[in-house]
Amino acid sequence: MKALAALLLLAACASPAPEFTGAARSDVTVNGRDYAVFQKGERVAVIRLGFAGRGEHQEIRATMIGLIPAVTGCSLRQTSLRGDSGEMRGSLNCP
Q: Pairing between strand 24-30 and 82-83?
């Protein structure tokens, strides 16, 4: 039972890639869906929290891309973006 509880806790957490250790974290809710945005210098990661059903991924991906400038105040270097509707990483151009 303890193992199940630990697994559920881990599944509810958003942990960024090791390169984002010490990054600033912003939690955002858009259209009832939760996201965690991590920024460290000119690098950014966006993680979707929770389940996404079939047919939702394209809209989620667009939302995640839109969150990057809204949360960081920086523009995304489009060619640097990698990932999917679960997690994306990219580079920023910050003023």
A: unpaired
Is 7 inside any structural domain?
A: no
Position 73, amino acid: G
**Could you tell me where the DSSP H helices lie in 13-86?**
57-72
Residue 1 resides in a domain: no
Q: Using an 8 Å Cβ cutoff, are 45 and 37 in contact? A: yes
DSSP state of 8: H
Query: What digits encode the pLDDT tens for the residues 21-73?
Result: 999 999 999 999 999 999 999 999 999 999 999 999 999 999 999 999 999 99
Residue 8 is predicted with a pLDDT of: 43
The beta strands (E) that lie in the chain are given as 24-30, 33-40, 43-49, 75-76, 82-83, 87-93
